[in-house]
Structure formats: C-alpha cells, structure tokens
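Entry type: protein chain
Record version: 2
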Amino acid sequence: MKRPVPLLAVLLVAGCAEKNSPEPQENTTAAPDLEAGATVEPVLFVADGLNADGSLVSNYQRGLRYAIDYFGNYGPYYVYLLGPDSEQSVRAIYRQRAMTRVSLDPRFPTAEEQVEEFLKRPNVVTEIKSVLAGKAEGGLTWTQDPPILYEDVTTNAKGREKDPVENTWGALHEYHHVFQMAHCDTKQDRASEKNINSWMSEGMATYSSARFMENLGLIDFRDYMLELRTSGANISRPSINEFLVTTQDWQLHNESYWDQGGAAQVYYMLGAWATAYLIHVQHIDEIVVLKDWYHDIPRIGKSAAFRKHMGLSLAEFYRKFDAFIRQTDDEVMGILPQGAEGN
C-alpha cells in the first residue's frame, strides 16, 4: 500500500518572517535512515511578488506530488522560489534557509553564529545578488554533513511562473535527484562505488521527468526523445546527432565533461537514451531502472547493484549502448513504444 503523499507546506514570506523558520536540528553522526524523512513535509518558500494567482506554486506542486508518489518522500526538502521584487523578502528567506542548516550540537557555534556564517559565505552572497538581479540560476543542492537536507533553489521564479510546463518539469527532475542523492555517498567521487555517475544522475532524471510529463498529459515522450537527437530539445545545442558527428571517442562514464564541455550532451541527452536502452532494449522494468536498483547501492556498491538489477555489467552495457546509439534516428526510435505505453 502506498504511503499517502504529504501535503506541501508553503511559506509566502513577506518582510522579516523569521518566526516561520524551521527549527534547528540536533547533529548526529549515525548512519542515515533512508526512510527517516518519510513523515517530513516538503516546504516551499515563495518570495514577495510571486504566485499572485497561485499558479506558480500549483504547477510546481503538480510535479512534486507526482514525483513523491513515485519515489517516496525523502527529506527534509526545501524549495525556494525567488524573485527580485522584494529584497527584504529575499533576505528573510535566506535567513530561514540558514536556520534549516543549524546544528544544536554543543561543539558547534551558537545558532545565530551559524546563521551569520552561512549568510556571509561567498557563494551565498553571490546567489542573493543573482536573485535580486533577476538572473536564472540555482538548482538542486544538499548538505553532506548533518543536518542532512535537500534544496531546490530557483533564483528567478518569474520565468517559471510564465512557463507552467517547465515549472512542473523542473519539479519532477529535481526530485528524482533528491531520491538519488538519498542513496549515494556524495562525499565520494562520482566514479566511486558508493556514488553514481553523472549520466545516471542526469540521464535517468531527464528520462523520468519526460516520461512523467507525458503521464501528466503535458508532452509527447517520443517527440521529446527524438528532439534530443535532432535539436537538443529543451536542454542545449548541439544535439546528440551533431555531437556524435564531431566527437567519435566520447565515453558515457567519463566524468570530465563538466569541465571540458559536452556535459549536456553526454550526461543529460545520451544519458536519457542510455536509460531508454535499459528499459526498451534490455527490457528491464521502468521502476527498476529509475528507482529499485538504487536501494542496493549503499549496501553492495554501484557496479554490483547495476549487474544485479540490469542483468549485465557496466562495461558490457557501455559497449552495447555505444553501438546502439550510433544508429540512424529511425532505428533508434524504433525501440520506443507508441503513446504512453511504458514497456
């Protein structure tokens, strides 16, 4: 029986609303319980000047509720929908954000000192400036030491407010990452056994969010997967086809594309098609590829978990997928079912 999807607490922050701040958490060094956040409601912080008609929050919630129903409720999870209209509101939200990270461990500085330290961090100062300048930045972040939490930060939610489809899509994509990170040791390198490769993280979340968007009646999944090959869809240019023409020796598991270019093409686009290959060529149940195999990563490691659930080693998978993805559009698209039929 499915656990009921929790209600989403929404804090519309006007001025100095620190009284609504979540309570600081006791620090602990114990191993995390992956179901510990199951009763913690996600919290949405919305800055002044946004959500006047309620559509910004409702369209985000549409995606978040779907994702929680599919993956389970992990957290604490805080969503920050920010805009440049009220500096007072933005700074109040960042103070609340700092409070969520406070530890009550007596070995740590006081709560107020921890809050002030967070607000003075160079990356936080830069992020606040981006919000007030109306720049579209941010994304998913999380803490690696207790208190463990996850955050989706949108620095210019005015853009999301004008695009309800992308708003829902973003909520779906980022929550898949919350589930993934809850089953990984993010302190370790992505090539390590207790963390996942970038193509697994971004590619599987790209695939899942597109599938879920079709299930919600908002896009055509086949069209989207074809667009990844021909135009880059809503991610980036060059497209997969353009990238493969100029980059013959790419490697799906190579983690250097973040620095040298090609991250969008390899991790997101080719990663999405790698996910499709597992589901539609290897005939692994969709829920196994998107969800179930992650539960074994903390226990037996990434390579063993992949082999156990997918039926082949990572090395064998990489060889087979490389040959598959170099085929024509018609040949590659032939693996996908018509309509929202799943497998």
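Comment: Residues 164-181 form the longest helix (18 residues).
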